[in-house]
Write a structure and sequence with these properties.
alpha/beta, 5-stranded mixed β-sheet, 10 strands, about 270 residues
């Protein structure tokens, strides 16, 4: 009998280990479909850099879809199967909240955009070069784009708006404005500083106090079937250590302007 017990004991241990493994697998089901992140085109490169350092990222199936904020907003309104939406503004997240299309309390500011004066045809030394510039100037549409509205406010602060407003080349969004300047079709432009930082171009940062903060917000889409995972991604982006990583990518972290209640809510 003792010998029989000695033979059965290892088998019992193996059975218990297999049973525990099966229970663990049942408690933690595998991801059945990718987590779909809709992100404004201006932030897509920065998001990919952040997520590359996310713990256990290889165990998560992520799908990043980048486009203009307005396009993504309309897709979500019409039932696109997104889980997380990172907007270039605060207006569309606010609208989605009003339309009850997001998870309650999921709307958060995840970064503040910055603008910069840039030329692809010549190096710039200071904003004062605009005082003597008489050519065309590219900015995003101030009536529809947050970066364009910020550009207009900065030009007004510099007392330059009257002399440049009739020479503006306005893009439908900040990405189009960036392409207009990069292609050298327009000699000067006010673009998103993140576009310069990520592409390693040199420009002149326009002081944040010259325009209302460009709050970029994220939300978790109400129709998501992976809310916990979407929340995990949201929390990761908002971590103070990751917020600091946004600085060399051309954004201001949320901690830098959290006390400022004024935000730019214009469309992109």
């Amino acid at each position: 009998m003792p010998k029989l017990r000695q033979k059965l004991l290892p088998l019992c241990i193996i059975w218990l280990a297999l049973h525990a493994s099966c229970v663990s697998a049942l408690e933690k089901p595998k991801q059945t479909k990718p987590l779909r992140i809709a992100v404004a085109a201006n932030f897509a490169p920065a998001l990919k850099i952040l997520l590359a350092e996310m713990p256990k990222k290889d165990a998560i199936d992520l799908q990043i879809i980048s486009a203009a904020t307005g396009t993504l907003y309309l897709q979500i309104k019409h039932g696109a199967p997104f889980d997380l939406f990172l907007s270039a503004d605060s207006s569309r997240p606010e609208l989605l909240e009003q339309e009850q299309l997001i998870i309650a309390d999921s709307r958060k500011t995840y970064a503040y955009g910055q603008i910069a004066l840039w030329s692809a045809t010549r190096p710039l030394s200071s904003l004062s070069e605009l005082n003597h510039y008489s050519g065309r100037l590219a900015i995003a549409n101030p009536d529809t784009a947050p970066y364009g509205k910020a550009a207009q406010q900065a030009l007004q602060k510099l007392l330059l708006w009257p002399q440049v407003k009739n020479k503006l080349i306005t893009g439908i969004n900040i990405n189009q404005t960036f392409q207009q300047v990069r292609s050298k079709a327009v000699p000067f432009g006010i673009v998103a500083y993140s576009q310069l930082a990520i592409n390693k171009y040199q420009g002149i940062i326009i002081p944040p106090e010259y325009y209302q903060p460009i709050a970029q917000q994220l939300v978790i889409v109400k129709s998501s079937q992976q809310v916990k995972l979407a929340q995990r991604i949201s929390d990761f982006i908002l971590q103070a250590s990751n917020q600091e990583k946004l600085v060399p990518l051309g954004y201001l972290p949320i901690q830098s302007l959290q006390k400022n209640s004024q935000v730019n809510t214009q469309y992109d």
